[in-house]
Design goal:
179 residues, Rossmann fold, alpha/beta, 7 helices, 5-stranded parallel sheet, globular
């Protein structure tokens, strides 16, 4: 099975890759994250993933589109933004997987205890059906802390928020409230 792994960042990829390799897969990595803002954060995360892929001798494909406009058009404020963001990224991943001959795809979003796991699964399965590829569901959440520890030990860049402009604003506002 040829497997495409959508990666939100390198730290979340560490344990996912290790687990998938343990199952006999050699995942090929895919970067598409127009949600990440600002551009400096986008570049930091992308470049960290590039280094991780090179160190692990993994193929990395990129749909390198830093675009606040693309994200805001797909995920307007005051909506169920996380659900729309999952759809934006997993639709692109499923489409790419189908075009490039992958059998299945999955995502590192499934490792985060902070994301809506059931919604990610639902969207992944919906996009898989639309594009005629399989969605490989795995609950990677039990591996989250292990992966974060390994990422820290490797000196990887570790972000402080999901990446979107809305979560960055919320982080700032909440920080100001504590002062």
């Amino acid at each position: 099975m040829r497997l495409l792994l959508h990666c939100c960042c390198a730290p979340c990829s560490v344990s996912c890759v290790k687990n998938l390799r343990g199952e006999g897969f050699t995942p090929e990595l895919f970067w598409f994250n127009p949600n990440i803002h600002p551009s400096t954060e986008y570049v930091s995360r992308r470049d960290c993933l590039k280094k991780f892929a090179a160190d692990e001798k993994l193929d990395l494909k990129t749909a390198d589109e830093y675009s606040v406009k693309l994200f805001l058009n797909a995920v307007p404020p005051d909506t169920e933004r996380c659900k729309k963001c999952y759809s934006l990224r997993l639709e692109k991943t499923a489409s790419f997987a189908a075009q490039e001959g992958y059998t299945a795809f999955t995502t590192t979003l499934l490792i985060s205890p902070y994301q809506d796991h059931e919604e990610i699964k639902r969207v992944g399965e919906e996009e898989a059906a639309k594009y005629g590829v399989d969605f490989l569901y795995r609950d990677f959440r039990p591996l989250f802390r292990e992966g974060q520890s390994a990422a820290r030990a490797a000196g990887m860049y570790i972000q402080k928020y999901c990446g979107c402009i809305f979560s960055k604003e919320e982080r700032y506002v909440n920080k100001e409230k504590k002062i």
